[in-house]
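Cast an eye over this sequence plus tokens and walk me through the fold:

***
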Amino acid sequence: MYLTLNEAAEYLSISEEQVKSLILEKKIRALYDGDEYLINKDQFQTHFEQLEKYKELIDEYMKEPIPEDPDVKDED
């Protein structure tokens, strides 16, 4: 499925200018048909899967308890 520049911006939650900039930097693959850019939606699937994986890793890390430091001395 191909997206227009506007649809891709909405899908990625960024502005159209940012999408166009990413296309020009070759970070997003797109076809230019003479009128507008067409962007394949499937290229973002891996990106979103990796984001989910990183979110899970961060959640696991944040839930891990802080170990007690053996060098801390009771000063009372």
